Amino acid sequence: MQVADIVRVQGEAGHDVEVATATPGEALPGVHRLVAPMPFDLPVHPRGTGHLIRMMTARRPDVVHVHMGAVSPFAWMGVRAAVRAGLPVVVTIHSMWDPVTRGGYRALQSAFRWRSWGVVATAVSEAAARPIREVAGPGVPVHVVSNGLDVSAWRPSADVAAESRDTVHVVAVGRLAPRKQPMRLLHLLEAARSRVPEHIAMRATVVGDGPARGRMERHLRARRLDWVSLPGRLTREQIKEVLASADVFVAPAPRESFGLAALEARSAGVPVVAREQSGVADFVRPGKEGLLGRTFDELISSVATLARDPDLRRSIAGHNRETEPVKCSWPAVLEGFERCYALARG
After folding, report:
1. What pLDDT sits at residue 159?
2. What predicted TM-score, i.e. pTM, was given to this entire model?
């Protein structure tokens, strides 16, 4: 969704953008699907480098912008193809590099000497940039260009902002996959509830879907946590409705490279609780836009503190509604990419 938004806003800014992907799907204007029959529809093409070289050589783009996660074989093919075609390359890395990933890219350096390719790299946060810089070394510039958001679209109406509620509503949004630690999120909610006086009513909504959902539902039934709901995956408009009634947003994953859902909540005026060592710390400061914790117990305490203290919640929510995360707005993101394109072309 983030890449689709980048393509849209770059097109609106007057750029001519084409996308090459190995992901199967419907035909879309400007999208070239280089799809090979692979088990489980894996987005990998065994001859992707050759296909991409032919495409790039025919079109001669001004710059090739590759988007990759921790392990992205097709994206790596895109980098190699652009270098072999003699084209400027900017690589945006959307994930946190763990020790295994860092070791993998060191091995690739030994095999391909990619540090000498003239690539310009960007990461979506300072937390994500640090391990990349450790591997890339001084010869590969690694800039931070935030993920983008139409900030004004998430701002709540004046009527919603003025509402007072009797129940503290805690919200989390994300894929229910092991990397996001959804079971720990349920333990966090239950532990935070135990630290809040019984006369304060609480409810929680965990938006999203994924392989851990069944286990989470069984856990909620076993623990009789009927105040926690799992509505599944929702559209952006539906998420806006959920955030309109939220008092606290929780993003507990320690290896969150950015935290787009947390940015949406912050833009909607909701106080955010997140890990100090995650990418969320780029746009959430303790006591300003939310509360940060370095440990799991500190996250529990932060949620409980906000649930117990309506004045603190109102103060943070008011600040979030009145100030915009400027670095995450689309004009700032486009400007950041333009600087990287110019650097790569130079």
Report:
1. 60
2. 0.90
CATH topology (fold) of 151-324: Rossmann fold (3.40.50)
Asked whether 6 and 336 are in contact (CB, 8 A), the reply is no
Cα 183–chain centre separation? 20
**pLDDT score for 188:** 97
pLDDT of residue 203: 97
Q: How, if at all, do strands 167-173 and 201-207 pair?
A: parallel
308 φ, ψ (degrees, to nearest 5): -80, -20
Distance (Å, whole) CA 146 – CA 8: 16
Domain 2-148+329-345 superfamily per CATH:
Glycogen Phosphorylase B; (3.40.50.2000)
pLDDT of residue 160: 58
- Domain-by-domain residue ranges, the chain? 2-148+329-345, 151-324
Instruction: Classify burial at 209, counting beta carbons within 10 Å of its beta carbon; exposed 0-12, middle 13-18, buried 19 or more.
Output: middle
Residue 164: the pLDDT is 58
Return the DSSP state at 320: H
Question: Is 32 within 8 Å of 7 (Cβ atoms)?
Answer: no
Strands 201-207 and 142-144: unpaired
Q: What is the pLDDT of residue 127?
A: 96
CB count, 10 Å around CB of 324?
Answer: 15
- The reply to whether 2-148+329-345 and 151-324 are identical in fold is yes
With a cut of 70, which residues of the chain have pLDDT below it? 158-164
Residue 203 CA to residue 170 CA, distance in Å, equals 6
Instruction: State the amino acid at position 109 in one-letter form.
Output: Q
Tokens matching residue 338: 């333009």
Torsion of CA 195, 198, 202, 208, to 10 degrees: 50
CB of 57 closer than 8 Å to CB of 40: no
